[in-house]
């Protein structure tokens, strides 16, 4: 009797006397074949969470306040809505490809090559990979800058290096950590992404709740930008007030990368249980959730933070005295004590507020005397 082994069918074909063929199961080989199948992800873990983590990034915490300070609440909302429209149109095109046939592994390269050909797919795929690498660098540097600033602000001792070297050091170790996460496999990587999303959501909730916490009144004026919810602040911040040669389109170009990241789920199409359903469903849900959060945060900033603030009481009062005494320092508006209308001089000595990146100074707040708390 002789045996023939078929690996594809995971069985043994036994050839006995007279040429009779009998199939015998080979359990070990069959289990090996079954265990080789990669784990498949659903639309929430495979698409929604990935897209949210890629859409929400350094722009949300560092540059959204700058966008509101430059373009105002009204045009900031227009910028967010226009960015959403662009991503929705792109997702509609991607969904049409996904639902028009079987979706295999390859992500954006496969989707583009199936509609435009492998030449276009390969070229765009290379550019897309490089763009992702640049985006990782952007997020790492943003994280390292913020971490360095927080450590300095809270007097945490760090090695005797310059600030730029601190950023490089933290960025280097962060990139190594991200590389390790990418190498440990899809199963662990998807679990870590859930943890990162929880941290991100907690940070957003903390920012929203913090905007409602009343300011402490100690009869001091720190004037660092935060006014609590005030109608006067909203009116001042609603219209655009461009500075440093900015305009609507330049501000839009700064914000738009914050709306990208919609291909994060499609890029692992080979690891999805049902990519034809998961990719459109998860991507559209992520777009609408992230856009709603951007609008809420933008309006919250516009209601609670002034465009310009001096940062310290000493600097503020020194400049006011200098202006009153010499008139050499031009200031079109200041703190109107008679009407409690909190409008601020837009001169260069104001180094905090939305225009100057208030979100980077997350521990700063505007504490005004109790006499002014009932103003507009």
UniProtKB/TrEMBL annotation:
Q: Does the keyword Membrane apply?
A: yes
GO terms of molecular function: sodium:potassium:chloride symporter activity
Write out the transmembrane intervals.
47-67, 73-99, 120-144, 164-186, 193-213, 248-272, 284-309
**Superkingdom of origin organism:** Eukaryota
How does this protein lie in the membrane?
Answer: Multi-pass membrane protein
One of this protein's GO BP terms? potassium ion homeostasis
Task: Enumerate the UniProt keywords alphabetically.
Answer: Membrane, Transmembrane, Transmembrane helix, Transport
The subcellular localization recorded is: Membrane
Keyword Transferase in annotation:
no
GO CC, alphabetical:
membrane
Q: Where is the Amino acid permease/ SLC12A domain?
A: 46-311
Annotated family: Belongs to the SLC12A transporter family.
Question: What is the protein name for this chain?
Answer: Solute carrier family 12 member 9
